[in-house]
Amino acid sequence: MKNILVVSVNWLGDVIFSLPVYQSIKDNYPDARVTAFCVPRVKEVLGLCPHIDEIMVYDEKGKERSFLRRLAFVVKLRKKKFDTVFILRPSFSRACLMWAAGIPQRIGFGKPSASWPLTLAGNMPDPRTTHRSDIYSHLLTVAGLRLADRVSRLLLSAAQKDAARSFLQSRGLPQDGAYVVLNTGGNWDLKQWPAASFALLAQRLVKETKYKIVLPGAPSDRARANDIASSLGRSAIVVAGETDIPLLAAIMSGAAMVISADSGPLHLASALGVATVAIFGPTRPELTGPRGTGRGVVLQKSTGCNRAACYYLECSDNICMKQVSVDDVFSSVLRLHN
């Protein structure tokens, strides 16, 4: 039985894009034991992947910060006796760690000048023209493995879904209530659809459809969520700052649809098979668009400056997000609803 380690990427959306890697490994080696090596913030989402047998958390900025603790972690890796490690992003430090752990096959992306810790180094596809998911899957082709379909899938237990429904009912959702999740936040401001647009959309959803509104997010999103909900009365449930990833996933899995800008929660919903309306502005859907099993509509308006992915964080206008109107989003909701 093969014993395989996968060094994960570090952010929620990227982890979801990497999920086909784990499925492909299992398809190539059905009896393999697959372990994910990750930073603490993505442990919970990896725990929802049905193709991962074990998760090893490496907290280099916390628990494993000191040299002695890192050395102890290397010893821990050695005891696991892994046959092969796939390192999903270029990282000289991770490659050195796996070399120190004595893993015989070390496969990753690397330039010739910095790839000596790897036993097999591949050229990373151009991130300006290649979907993030295809970049991670390409590493398997470097190793000669066949690929499964390039679709991200996550799996929830019945108990997790029941807990989410009970949680929402405790907050006022009727037992058989249908709801839409509005994910209003994002990891950087430039990708966020205006709060005023979300508020108008929420009002229209409540007035013209049967749906209640659920507003999740990080603690920093709570004020915005409360502002959006303020005119909706009992038709809105604000849970921003109150959910971990498994609970958020379970809430989303029970939703009629999720409406979100390009963000980790958008891709989480898609990987759970939930219908999504994705609002794109500065980023490009051909590079970071949803790759899950859920039906979806992607909305983006060309403004010239977003023909390629734009990372100009000092932009004071954010015209590319403002160009997507409430009517655009509501029409997409109706398309998915029907």
Textual characterization of the structure:
- This protein is of the alpha/beta class.
- The chain folds into two domains: 3-142, Glycogen Phosphorylase B (Rossmann fold); 158-337, Rossmann fold.
- It contains 14 helices and twelve strands.
- It has helices at residues 12-17, 19-28, 43-46, 67-80, 92-100, 132-142, 158-170, 195-208, 222-229, 245-253, 264-271, 285-288, 319-322, 326-337, and strands at 3-7, 33-38, 54-57, 84-87, 105-109, 120-122, 179-183, 212-215, 236-238, 257-261, 276-279, 296-299.
- The strands form two sheets. Strands 3-2-1-4-5-6 form a six-stranded parallel sheet, sandwiched between helices.
Keywords:
Rossmann fold, 338 residues
Provide a concise account of the structure shown.
The chain has 338 residues and is of the alpha/beta class. It is built from 14 helices and twelve strands. The strands form two sheets. It has a six-stranded parallel β-sheet, sandwiched between helices.
